[in-house]
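=== RUN LOG ===
request id: a7f3
mode: sequence -> structure
chains: 1
length: 257
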Amino acid sequence: MPKAKLAMTISLAVLCIPITWTLSGMLPQAIWECLVAVVVASAFVYLFMGNVASFVWLAAQIFITGSGVTVYAWRRGLAMGGEWRWIALHLLYVMLSVSVWLCVSFLKGMAEQLLHLHSKVNSLEKTVSQDGLLTAHEFVYQVDAALRNMARREETGYLLILCVRAKHSKNALFHSLASAAVQSVRERFDLVGVIDNCIYMLLQRTEGEGVDTVLERIAARMGSYIIPSFRDWVDVERIPLPVGATVESIGLQEYLA
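=== RESULT ===
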């Protein structure tokens, strides 16, 4: 489908060349410049309109120019031969306007498809390659499944959120923190992901002391950055997960879409 749209767009763009050349040679200079300005401005406007609104704009543009040609022919008192010439010129202008509208519509559609595919690829990627963190969608998807299993087994846990607030070397600190977080949890039971530039950790079968243990492990692995304290550059939020906790109850349901 994208290939067909691309081929159609190229064909329409090529069609615009002879139409434009014909109009430029048969219209008075002032009228030609005015029509070119209208077509170019309309093409720009189409970029910011929906398909229905842009089509209404196109129809209005064709109607106004057609009315203008009719008035021009009437006031000049053109004979029937002259009127047919202007009718033919207006039809060429309509073909040019419609071709430009279709080109912009097809290009917008292809751009939206590419953005949608890019978003899908990002959501389907399971980990952030450098740090081994789960992406937001994959993390919440697995958290949803884990919470259901925890509810069935009547288990509790904690959601731990770590956000770097250091002003300097934030990227380096984040990657080091991410690596330390991944290495500080139980591989078979706990989940570590990234959401909105913060590290989220689901700790299953864990009480408050278990959370303290995980934080101590992270701090130990971040030894070279603890100047003077781990808490000086990392905001830590603990969210207890009672039996029956859900993704909705911890405010992460938007990432399940």
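=== NOTES ===
The chain has seven helices and six strands.
The chain has a mean pLDDT of 79.
=== END ===
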